Amino acid sequence: MRKFLVKINAYQHHAEFEILAEDNRESIENSIVDKLGEKGVNWEYLGEMNDPRVNRITYEEVVDGQRPIQTKKVLGVEVAAGV
Questions:
Q1: Which of 18, 43, 47, 70 fits a 20 to 30 Å CA distance from 37?
Q2: Per-domain residue ranges for the chain?
Q3: Whole-model pTM?
Q4: CA pair distance 76, 71, nearest whole angstrom
């Protein structure tokens, strides 16, 4: 199971929440539907500036910071402190 950050923009509203799901489409979709069914999602009104005909759902994996981001393993180069 992985943690995903879900961002939904629809009908001039925005919601952002985390879900736990397996790394496949069906599991992610089912987890999103379950979370929406719980009615625990806070919707923000975005106003009239956003086109109500454009509906988007995006998701990304949440990294819990298990290792420092600036390491030789990640960047492929030595990171030096100071100038």
A1: 47
A2: 2-75
A3: 0.58
A4: 8
